């Protein structure tokens, strides 16, 4: 996959003709993949390159000064798109200058100008200043030079599959439903950093995984997780929260206890996948009471992860 970074105004060697999926694609969930795969099918039918055009940062950060809750870091999004087998990733820097383009300018410069011969987008995709361009107006702006396909809203069991729906699941701690919408378990990838090492004092050492600043973490609580470190997958139990049993600065942390693991992994990348919510975070009356509860949580997580592994092996 060739990553073509574009910042307005841009000058770039014209790529080969392509069919391109357009969208922000935060989370690259099952609905997004419907759009991307439709573009890929058209590319194969017409002998074109397979392409995706996405944007960073989120428009509301640029236009409204609000912090977005990303479901994927840019690095994660790139890797998920790479897995779709595309040839070109047009990565556009979303800026005030870019947002000021008219729909016609966007189509002329970022579609026709990039040799895109076919575009695919979701039913609610908009482009140009104040989103005045839509998939209904696209044929007018492309003047017959670019074909287009609009992918309808994707629902399953009366559940709309959208980034908003995934975020709501995570806010509720419902990582299992989030996984259903995403088509994979929700992940947080961060560096293992030094914490206060309280877990060691009660017999449950944890890896303190730094949560990427703009990425949405699931609701505070305890979860059954898997964690990838140095290419190996480990089972474990994780706590997201503020550690209310001890003196807390109110900062949320992600602490992962990996089962049957005692290696020093400070400074390593750890990719944590959330499989099941076990319980909300709570304050305990003593360290002994907390220790008993963590032991029970770990046993709960082990049983769930064993069942999960058995299903995968069948």
Automatic annotation (TrEMBL):
<dbReference type="GO" id="GO:0009231">
    <property type="term" value="P:riboflavin biosynthetic process"/>
</dbReference>
<comment type="function">
    <text>Catalyzes the phosphorylation of riboflavin to FMN followed by the adenylation of FMN to FAD.</text>
</comment>
<dbReference type="GO" id="GO:0003919">
    <property type="term" value="F:FMN adenylyltransferase activity"/>
</dbReference>
<keyword id="KW-0288">FMN</keyword>
<keyword id="KW-0418">Kinase</keyword>
<dbReference type="Pfam" id="PF01687">
    <property type="entry name" value="Flavokinase"/>
</dbReference>
<protein>
    <recommendedName>
        <fullName>Riboflavin biosynthesis protein</fullName>
        <ecNumber>2.7.1.26</ecNumber>
        <ecNumber>2.7.7.2</ecNumber>
    </recommendedName>
</protein>
<dbReference type="InterPro" id="IPR023465">
    <property type="entry name" value="Riboflavin_kinase_dom_sf"/>
</dbReference>
<dbReference type="GO" id="GO:0008531">
    <property type="term" value="F:riboflavin kinase activity"/>
</dbReference>
<dbReference type="GO" id="GO:0005524">
    <property type="term" value="F:ATP binding"/>
</dbReference>
<dbReference type="Pfam" id="PF06574">
    <property type="entry name" value="FAD_syn"/>
</dbReference>
<dbReference type="InterPro" id="IPR015864">
    <property type="entry name" value="FAD_synthase"/>
</dbReference>
<dbReference type="InterPro" id="IPR002606">
    <property type="entry name" value="Riboflavin_kinase_bac"/>
</dbReference>
<keyword id="KW-0285">Flavoprotein</keyword>
<dbReference type="GO" id="GO:0006747">
    <property type="term" value="P:FAD biosynthetic process"/>
</dbReference>
<keyword id="KW-0067">ATP-binding</keyword>
<feature type="domain" description="Riboflavin kinase">
    <location>
        <begin position="181"/>
        <end position="306"/>
    </location>
</feature>
<dbReference type="InterPro" id="IPR014729">
    <property type="entry name" value="Rossmann-like_a/b/a_fold"/>
</dbReference>
<comment type="pathway">
    <text>Cofactor biosynthesis; FAD biosynthesis; FAD from FMN: step 1/1.</text>
</comment>
<keyword id="KW-0548">Nucleotidyltransferase</keyword>
<dbReference type="InterPro" id="IPR023468">
    <property type="entry name" value="Riboflavin_kinase"/>
</dbReference>
<comment type="pathway">
    <text>Cofactor biosynthesis; FMN biosynthesis; FMN from riboflavin (ATP route): step 1/1.</text>
</comment>
<keyword id="KW-0547">Nucleotide-binding</keyword>
<keyword id="KW-0808">Transferase</keyword>
<comment type="similarity">
    <text>Belongs to the ribF family.</text>
</comment>
<dbReference type="InterPro" id="IPR015865">
    <property type="entry name" value="Riboflavin_kinase_bac/euk"/>
</dbReference>
<dbReference type="GO" id="GO:0009398">
    <property type="term" value="P:FMN biosynthetic process"/>
</dbReference>
<keyword id="KW-0511">Multifunctional enzyme</keyword>
<keyword id="KW-0274">FAD</keyword>
